[in-house]
Amino acid sequence: MPDLDWQRVWARRGAAARTLWPAHALMGAALGLRRMLWAAGLWRPWRAPVPVVVVGNVVAGGAGKTPTTIALVHHLRARGRTPGVVARGHGGDAAAPHLVADDPDPARCGDEPVLVAQATGAPVAVAPNRPCAVRALLQRHPRVDIVVSDDGLQHWALAADLALVLFDARDVGNGWLLPAGPLREPWPLRRTPAPTVWVLRTEPPGRPPAAHPYPEFSARRQLADWADDGRERRPLTEWASGRYPAPGALAGIARPQAFFDALRAAGVPLAAARPLRDHAPAAELRQVLQAAARAGGPRDWLCTEKDAVKLRGTPLPEGVRVWAVPLTLALPPAFTAALDAWLDARAPERGTAL
Fold first, then answer.
1. Of 160, 242, 292, 330, whose CA is between 20 and 30 Å from 153?
2. Looking at the predicted structure, is the pLDDT value of residue 342 above 70?
C-alpha cells in the first residue's frame, strides 16, 4: 500500500486500518514477548555513570524530538551542567561510534546530530548501539555529567533515568500499533522496571488525549519568523508582503505538509511545495532544486534546518538560494522547574531500564 496517506489511515479506525489489524495484533504479541524476556533478565540494559535523559515518542513520525533536545541542552548548560548528546544518526552511514565533531558530514552522522551539534555546541556521538555511543562520548569528553539521547525510547539496551515522551496534535491516533496505527509500542508504557516518565506536548491535542498516569507539560513549538541562507537573515514578511517573489518550499522530514502549512499560516505564498522522504539525502534535495530551475521555478527555496545542513556547501543551481526556517521550542517554566528539582534529588548511578 505504498500510496496510502498513512497519517490519515492512522487517525481513525477506518477500513484501511481495520484491514491491517492482524499486523497490530502480531506486533503486540512480539512486543509482549520482548518485555517478558527483558523482565526475566535474558538481556540487561547498560547503565551509564551519569544520568541519561531520553527524548522520544511512541508515535511514528516527528513530534519535535530534535528541537526539544536542543532546548533541553541549552537549559542544562544554563543551569551549570555539561550535557552531551547521543543519537542513532538516521540518514548517516556510521556503523561504529562516531563523534560529530570529527567529521560533521550529514552523510556520515545523519542530519539531526549535525544540527544538534551546530545549534548547541555540545559534543554529540552517533551509533546504532546507544551504549557504545555513550561510552565513546564519555571517553572523549569526561567532563560530561548528563547525557541526552535524541530518540531512543525503544532502544532498551541503554538504561534511562528520565524518559520524555513527546506528543504532537495527533496524540496516539487510532491507538493501534504499526502498521495499523501510529504506535511503536503500547501507551501507556508497559515496562518493568521503568524509568521516570514525563509527557511533553509540543502541540495542543487535536482530539481528546489518551489517558496516562504520568506528569504532563505543554511546550510551545513554532516556526521562527525569519529564514537564513548562511549569508543573510530575511524576515518571512518579506515574502508575505510580496517584496520578493513567492518562494518554493521543500522538506525531507516525517511530516512535510506540517512545514508547508506553517509557512502558509505565516502568510508566505508558496510557488511550489516539494515533500521528500524523511532524512532524504543531499542528492535528492538537489534533484528537486535542479528540476525546478530547469522548469523556470522559484529562485528562493525555504526548507527546514534539517534539510539545510545537508545542502550547505553543496553546489546549487545558478541563482538559487536555499533558506532555512528554524523550528523553535520553548520549554515551559513548570517543566524546567520540575527538571531542576529532579536533577537535584537524584543520584547519578541509579539508572533503570527503559
1. 330
2. yes
CA triple 66-70-76, angle to 5 deg: 140
Give me 100's grid cell. Answer: 560529530
Q: Which residues are within 8 A (CB) of 305 and not within 5 positions of it... i.e. 6 or more apart?
A: 115, 119, 324, 325, 326, 327
pLDDT, residue 353, reads 46
CB atoms within 10 A of CB 242: 9
- What residues have CB less than 8 Å from 299, skipping those under 6 apart? 245, 319, 320, 321
Q: What is the distance between the terminal CA atoms of the chain, rounded to a whole angstrom?
A: 33
Binding-site annotation, residues? 59-66
Whether 106 and 87 have beta carbons less than 8 Å apart is answered as no
Q: Are 89 and 117 in contact (CB under 8 A)?
A: no
Report strand pairing: 321-324 vs 300-303.
parallel
Q: Inform me whether the pLDDT recorded for 1 exceeds 50.
A: no
Q: What pLDDT band is residue 41 in, cutting at 50, 70 and 90?
A: confident
Residue type, position 311, single letter: L
- Binding annotation for ATP: 59-66
**Which one of 3.30.1370, 3.40.1000, 3.40.50, 3.30.160 gives the CATH number of domain 52-81+145-221+330-345?**
3.40.50
Give residue-wise pLDDT tens across range 299-334: 999 999 999 999 988 899 999 999 999 998 999 999
The distance between the two most distant Cα atoms of the chain, rounded to a whole number of Å, is 65
Under 8 Å CB-to-CB from 309, ≥6 apart: which residues? 106, 111, 114, 115, 118
The domain ranges of the chain are 52-81+145-221+330-345, 225-325
For residues 349 and 47, give the distance between their C-alpha atoms in angstroms, rounded to a whole number: 8
The number of helices, as runs of H, and strands, as runs of E, in the chain is: 12, 16
Q: pLDDT tens digit string along 56-66?
A: 999 998 889 99
